[in-house]
Amino acid sequence: MEQFIQGMPKAELHLHIEGTLEPELMFEIGERNGVSIPFASVDEVRKAYEFTDLQSFLDIYYAGANVLLKEQDFYDMTWAYLQRVHAQNVRHVEIFFDPQTHTDRGVPFETVITGIHRALEDADRQLGISSRIIMCFLRHLSGEAALATLEQALPFKHLIVGVGLDSSEVGHPPSKFTAAFDRARDEGFLTVAHAGEEGPPAYIWEALDLLHAKRIDHGVRCVEDDELVDRLRQERIPLTVCPLSNVKLCVYDRMEDHSLKRLLDAGLCATVNSDDPAYFGGYMNENFLAAQRGLDLTRDEVVTLARNAFEATFLEPARRDALLKELDDYVAAG
Ligand code: HPA
Ligand code: ZN
Questions:
Q1: How many C-beta atoms lie closer than 10 Å to residue 265's C-beta?
Q2: Is the pTM for the entire model greater than 0.90?
Q3: Ligand 1: distance of its center to the CA of 290 in Å?
Q4: What residue spans define the domains of the chain?
Q5: CATH dotted code for 2-333
Q6: CA 189 to CA 182: how far, in whole Å?
């Protein structure tokens, strides 16, 4: 099974690029930029990654992002991620970035998007990995701040396929961002939103009804609401599930308790993703394998998860269908 997962063509749809910053690169970039990190060594950083909930993770994640100042920093971080997932047979990625984490420290929007985009272009040419970029608003900040960030993004609209919503969920419902998402859709952006990770099913309803989300990021708490599960199935709304993240942040005590198997049994379009792999202990293959083992998933279920992801991409149909065929050929050969 491990070998099958390793070789399987995959798409990643829920990945925060700031969450791919491994401690070694964090130190390297921090040193060259003269930014100190509140840890003495790489080992000390890794030891600090004992999280109890989403906020305890976010506090450390935002501290780590402080080392990123120059375009080359964003390039190097993105390129390191792409090389890792290339070795895992990931064929397409749709990555989130959090502009406000950087612009609020005085780093220009252009610096961030240019560095990330340049690495993605190189990955397309050199590694055969296609990609899309999604810009997330930080939900612990105001709706007005999200609108201001959207304005800053407009000159780079051609590089950004959609907008999303991340950071501290509870107490910051999707409804807080109705105006920003209305404006974003008027400008032609697709929309997604984190919902139902720590927050209640009601936040998933809001993400669908108010933000017109095309995909729900996490969404694992939908299983608490039968009517919502019916809707997600009928409208075939993809859920970008992140198994290791959910266990690391104590959404579930053990992988055996994760709702992923129930989502598949209910006929939902569930996918497997890594969220913040430098912090949660694994990239795509590790997430697939941990979920497969913890939930005793069959090979067919593993393939369904991979197929769902290709179907849920924001790709043009020709590339999407070519990737689906790669997967079918792989399964037929195995
Ligand atoms: N949830 C909310 N915000 C985030 C996450 C997450 O899993 N990762 C990075 N920012
Ligand atoms: Zn996330």
A1: 11
A2: yes
A3: 20
A4: 2-333
A5: 3.20.20.140
A6: 10
